[in-house]
Amino acid sequence: MAMEERQKAIKEGAGLEESRLNTEFIEMMKKWGPHLITVVAILAGLWAARDWWNRRAEARADTAFASLEQAIPRDGAPANPAVLERIAEEHPTGTAVPLEARSMAASIHLEAARTGIPIGEKLNADNTLPAGKSFLTAEEKRGELAKAETLFNAVVAGANSSLGQTQIAIGALTGLASIAEDRAEFDKARAFYQQASEKAAGKKLDQLKDIIKNRLDSLDQLKNPPRLYARSELPGGGATPIVAPIGGVTARTSTGEIIKLGDSKPGTVEIPGGGTLVPVSPPVITDSSGTRPATPEEVKKAQKPAETPAPTAPKPAAP
Questions:
Q1: Cβ atoms within 10 Å, residue 192
Q2: Structure confidence by residue, pLDDT tens digits, 149-162
Q3: By the 8 A CB rule, do 170 and 199 touch?
Q4: DSSP label of 116
């Protein structure tokens, strides 16, 4: 009997304890439930927003790379630097597209400054520009260098520390060094090369570092480069040079020297600096097989002075 009462007391106590716990849970949910639900809803919203943002960023990156690819002509011709700069402005962050676009535009301006060929123009087969076009003046070349310098500086300033963007920044630094070389600012060029070398070393780009080192080592050689003369500066005031196909025709200069011309038509040809060339027939040899052109060895042999025979002692008189 006592045992039954004891078990009954235990059951009643457990029931009271369970009832108390349920009551506390209900009270807690009444007090904190709305807040917990709000927190869960906020976390779920943040996750959804993050996923939406990532998908949007990927879409923007795809659009940026597609725009850059479309700006590059398929025929290998240089792109329009104005279009490349517009792409860099339209896609300012998130990818390396603005860096690549500005770097490409800067290289195009630098090439125009060095060659003197206006951007978008091509040389004819005779190294002349199309009718109505002219090579860049010295002032225009300086303007192209300034544009390239501005763009290269923007690339260096905008690159982060990732491997890909570091490589683009190294290319921009070497471009700035090239501009300094063209301006004969060799100390500035050396400083840019050193910055590029440090970036290459930091990313363990050993091959690229060696290339930069070779440029640094050859920098002093650029201080006294050989002069390239314009055609108008050559003797004769820019007379048309002799152009003839390879052949067996020779000519004699006004001083009597015989030179090869090729298969030119007979006539007098102007020589830059004065003098004339009069085409003559090539030397011929007549032998048992007939008449044929002389070989170079036979010509040399024919032009060689005849050897004077060595004097011989007189024969003794007969006794």
A1: 23
A2: 999 999 999 999 89
A3: yes
A4: -
Amino acid at 132: G
- If you write DSSP's letter for every residue of 67-98 in order, what string do you get? HHHHHS-TTSPPPPHHHHHHHHHHS-SSSSHH
Q: Does residue 20 register a pLDDT over 80? A: no
Do 104 and 66 contact (CB within 8 A), yes or no?
no
What type of residue sits at position 14?
A: A
Highest mean pLDDT: which range of 44-58, 145-159, 261-275: 145-159
The token duo for 290 is 């007939």
Phi, psi of 284, deg, nearest 5? -125, 160
Residue 256 CA: distances (Å) to CA of 189, 251, 263, 278: 52, 9, 20, 10
Sign of CA dihedral 11, 12, 14, 15: positive
Q: How many CA atoms lie within 13 A of 111 on its CB side?
A: 16
The pTM score is: 0.56
d(CA 144, CA 136): 10
